[in-house]
Design a protein that fits this description.
Radius of gyration: 25 Å
Number of helices: 25
Shape: globular
Number of domains: 3
Largest sheet: 8 strands, mixed
CATH superfamily of the largest domain: Phosphoenolpyruvate-binding domains
Strand content: 15-25%
CATH architecture of the largest domain: Alpha-Beta Barrel
Length: 573
């Protein structure tokens, strides 16, 4: 058995035959047509556009009961692209003026916009490029004719999709909707396809290159998105073992854990496990799985699913559904965390390095209309609750937090004057994800009600390694002593200030590191709901005192290899 490492986008495990998709589309040549063929090509385009819209409408209808409103609006955005006069006219001009065949005309136009959107340093425009890619993929497949190289048929049963890029066009098709797992060469955590994969519980890995060379059509492989691994060349024993694990994971997902089960260590030390969610569907899963609330609700989807900005009333309805769905449990809304250029619109000059630029709270303070739009919606949605939180992303110093708190007070007063019902109070907390915030967490905690530590982002900044960049993945995953020392320092500061701290991120749900976190003093974790069972197993195995001893051993380790030795000695199976 060979094991290939990638990046986990949606957790879970799946076993099945591989279906390679989308690799022969690069073979589309630049064919020219005669003048008497122009009308036929235009008719083919119109027919394919109509067929593509009908397919997406059908998919949207079928997913109505499975996905939330925000996720369903992704399909509305795709339909809008297919009806966009600008794109359609440009394709028609390529056919009429340049005498291109309809398929190369589509590739030319969408390829141009894809390059433009990829070049600008804007998170929203990059997601738009992903949507355009999905739309063009579906359109090209509906334009396929007898002269095109015959594609391999989609399997009739369940299968694992292997693709160059993670797209909704491959996840949802009319021939078969039997995708059990996905492995893709390209595609990030925040793409709409990734959001849908997580909402639907499809185990997904990206970042494994040259899949056609590694995989054969129909060969049985394992997508283990819990560890980010693709396993190929399986023996009969391997196949039996992983099939059993995949069936167990599927059964666990369909059946929520015992909602009355207390989350605690072996010796009864209470641990609070909350859900990390980006949609209403994920928030509902957190509730049914018995999690203590929503530790971090990522609010980006409502802004990115459509090209227009959501209204205050629309956001209020969405946020209220999440709050009411938790039935009194805590809900913390993380304010929009995108680059300022994306908030201000496409006319703004792109930043050279948006990851270190006007993103998070910086962009929100520069675009007060967006900040206050979200704050008003949260205040209106949280009426009658006492445990709704506002999370401020990318905080670097106390002033960031103070300015947001002042905006909360101002918007509450304005809404009261307008006779609009608002929450009496909301808790405001920083998201600690940059070294300056970690080093000054004492002053931040003194100014806030609690704090959230985004472990993945903090680790990325400490180690100068982008977790979505496969070239530096080993650097990001390195168990560097500085990461553990920084986390231990934050836990100590929180204890001294008597403030609760929530650990958030994929690494926060790592069962290997969980004993260290508990030993350092962390008691609250925001995790993907599907990670719950794995963490409960670890909690039942260790006492708080054993965790403290593990923590001490980790902090005494002088090198990454020494930390690794401590971590691998921990039994987690």
């Amino acid at each position: 058995m060979n094991v290939l490492r990638g990046e986990s986008v949606a957790p879970g495990i799946a076993v099945g035959p591989v279906h390679l998709r989308g690799y022969d589309e690069d073979e589309i040549g630049v064919s020219r047509i005669a003048a008497d063929q122009v009308e036929d090509e235009l008719n083919r385009l119109r027919s394919a556009l109509q067929r593509s819209r009908a397919q997406i409408e059908d998919i949207r209808s079928k997913q109505q009961g499975q996905l939330g409103d925000a996720e369903l609006r992704i399909f509305d955005a795709h339909i809008a692209y297919l009806s966009d006069a600008m794109f359609v006219t440009e394709i028609e001009q390529q056919i009429v003026q340049e005498r291109l065949g309809v398929r190369p005309a589509v590739r030319t136009v969408f390829g141009k916009y894809d390059r433009i959107f990829q070049l600008v340093e804007s998170e929203i425009l990059r997601r738009r490029a992903s949507d355009l890619r999905d739309v063009s993929t579906r359109l090209l497949r509906n334009l396929e004719d007898a002269g095109t190289k015959e594609r391999s048929s989609v399997p009739t049963g369940r299968y694992l999709l292997a693709a160059r890029k993670l797209t909704t066009a491959d996840m949802f098709n009319l021939q078969s909707e039997g995708v059990d797992g996905i492995v893709a060469e390209e595609g990030g955590m925040s793409s709409h396809a990734a959001i849908l994969a997580r909402s639907m519980g499809i185990p997904t890995i990206t970042g494994i290159r040259d899949l056609p060379r590694l995989l054969r059509e129909g060969s049985v492989v394992v997508v283990d998105a819990n560890t980010g691994e693709l396993r190929i060349d399986l023996t009969e024993a391997d196949l039996g073992q992983f099939t059993e694990r995949a069936q167990g994971w599927k059964a666990q997902r369909q059946q929520a854990p015992d909602v009355d089960h207390r989350h605690e260590t072996r010796d009864g030390t209470a641990i609070e496990l909350l859900g990390s969610c980006g949609s209403g569907g994920e928030a509902e899963m957190a509730r049914t799985f018995g999690l203590a609330g929503v530790g971090v609700f990522r609010t980006e989807l409502a802004f990115l699913a459509e090209r227009r900005r959501p209204t205050e009333d629309e956001l209020t309805v969405q946020y209220r559904q999440v709050v009411e769905g938790q039935q009194g449990r805590a809900v913390n809304f993380r304010l929009l965390d995108v680059a300022a250029a994306a908030l201000a619109g496409e006319s703004r000059d792109p930043e050279r390095n948006p990851a270190m630029g006007m993103r998070g709270v910086r962009g929100l303070l520069q675009n007060q209309d967006v900040l206050r739009l979200q704050l008003r919606a949260i205040l209106r949605a949280a009426v009658g609750t006492e445990n709704t939180g506002v999370l401020v992303p990318f905080v670097t110093h106390v002033m960031d937090l103070q300015r947001v708190k002042a905006a909360v007070i101002e918007e509450r007063l304005a809404l009261r004057k307008a006779k609009v019902a608002v929450a009496e109070s909301v808790r405001v907390a920083p998201v600690i994800e940059v070294p300056s915030a970690a080093l000054s967490c004492g002053s931040l905690l003194a100014e806030s009600d609690f704090a959230v530590v985004a472990v993945d982002d903090l680790q990325a900044h400490l180690l100068a390694a982008d977790r979505d960049n496969s070239a530096v993945r080993d650097y990001h995953e390195l168990p560097h002593p500085a990461v553990f020392e920084t986390l231990a320092r934050i836990a100590k500061e929180a204890d001294q200030k008597d403030r609760e701290v929530i650990l958030f991120g994929e690494t926060a749900a790592d069962p290997v590191r969980l004993p260290f976190y508990i030993g350092a003093g962390f008691r609250r974790f925001s995790i993907a709901p599907v990670r719950l069972r794995g963490l409960l197993k670890v909690l039942r195995r260790y006492s708080a005192e054993e965790c403290r001893r593990i923590c001490a051993r980790v902090l005494e380790a002088p090198r990454s290899i020494d930390v690794q030795r401590v971590l691998v000695s921990i039994e987690t199976d």
